[in-house]
Amino acid sequence: MSADEERRSKPGWSLARDTPRPRKKQGWECPAPTVEDWEDYKQWLGEQERKDELPAAPQIFLADFSLLFHQDPDVKLPWIHRVKCELPRRVGRLSGELPIKASYIGFGTNDAAEGYDLFKKAMAEIGVTLCRQIHHPPNRFEIAHLEQSDLVLVGGGDRRRLWETLGTDVGGNEVAEHVKWRYLQGALVIAVAEGMSLLGEKSWYCSGQENTVIPFKGWGIFPHVVAPETDDADLEDLVEKLGGAGVVVLGIHKGGGMIFNKDGLVEPARHMISEYRWDWQSTSVKQALLIGPPRNTGLICPLYAASREAAEDGDEVADAYAYALTQEEEAEEENLISKFDPYDQWLDFETRSEVEEQKKLGNDAFKAGKADLASIHYGKAKVMLSSATKRWADLNEKVRQKLDELAKPAPKGQLPSEQKESEAAQLGKKEDYQACTLQLTVLLNICACSLLAHSQDQARRQKESAEDKVPDHAS
């Protein structure tokens, strides 16, 4: 082996320096900043802000290990292949030579071997064999493996133990900082059970016989708090105990999970997610449910499985789409989309005429300076819009035919008298019967009534105060 080949830098190697480090320049030796430097700094600052807005890599939250071994009965593919799709992709000269490494952190269970055995079994299904458990305290070989890991799993266990070994509010934590650094470099982070709360802005542990909640600062790579839904934990009360306003807790049910994608969207896996959010108007906790797609393994995994079967059986490539949504699921999805689509809310001719009449009465009252009367008429129009709107599929067939006729262009080559007669006979445009167009004008009119009433009240108060001061000056 030649000397040049011996001196080549390899993964994990560090060459000895044969020359002294260059001396750092003093402030008076550095050149004065220019406009180009300021423009470069603004460009760099904008890139850093964009990095803060979107996650650097996917994050997967699991209530337990069961989802890693779950197999969808329709897709016939283990769910853990979704984890394989989220692994970082290497580019460059050594992209195909470096194997994938994975690390397991089980500080909450005092480095018990049961969790690590499940982790190795799950990684073997996707071809990841270079796995290593990070113990507490870690040795230098474990730290080196963690620095090169493409996947890091943080297990659950005792919350106080997790705070003592992985908390960052008291001081710097070696393992936690390495995990965050690997995440910022694109590594996939998986959190299980109680370890999910470490990734959020806040975490907690219980102390004493009364189980007093003591919050502490999390790693901050996820914007909210994630916790498993258990029988002995009330996440609704936890929102108030963690501070109330601004706290959002996402509860993951047993056997389920959640994926925080790189586009900033949250995707439930297998089961729905419960969201607990503090409402400052009612000073109470509001609960919502987040429901995932019908096939939460995504489109890549079904097509991958179908293409493998097609290659083995010699079927056509078109069979890869056999795992798409069924007709019932497509109809249900279209129904949900149309139900919450604001542009699919329509009015019939009778309801629109009543709404226009109430708007006209409100406009007349507003011009006369009667804000209270105008707000009453506008309120009636708003109630009619919210109660009488229908989807396009729910409208009468005759009404839909008439609306389609309004959308047709007017015939050309008519005399002016014929155009006036046709315009008088027309009922308007098809877009005029959309509820969103009328609702916008009604809401603007209600805001104008509020401003008019406020100005009238201010003028009335000034007049009353001026009248009260007149006898004082006369005396």
Helical proportion?
40-55%
Tell me the distance between the termini.
114 Å
* Average pLDDT rating: 79
Radius of gyration: 33 Å
- Tell me the β content: 5-15%
The helix-and-strand class reads alpha/beta
Summed up, the helix count is 15
Q: Could you tell me the number of beta strands?
A: 13
What's this, in brief?
With 475 residues, the chain is α/β, with parallel strands linked by helices.
Structure notes:
The chain is of the alpha/beta class. It has 15 helices and 13 strands. The protein has helices spanning 3-6, 35-53, 80-85, 113-124, 140-147, 159-166, 174-184, 235-241, 300-313, 327-339, 349-367, 371-388, 397-407, 416-425, 435-474; strands spanning 59-62, 101-105, 130-134, 151-154, 188-192, 202-207, 212-217, 225-228, 248-252, 257-260, 266-269, 273-279, 284-290. A seven-stranded mixed β-sheet has the order 3-2-4-5-1-10-11, sandwiched between helices. Strands 8-9-12-13 form a four-stranded mixed β-sheet, covered by helices on one side. Helix 4 links the parallel strand 2 and strand 3. Helix 11 (349-367) packs antiparallel against helix 12 and helix 12 (371-388) runs antiparallel to helix 15. The termini are far apart. Mean pLDDT is 79; it is low at 296-307 and 314-323.
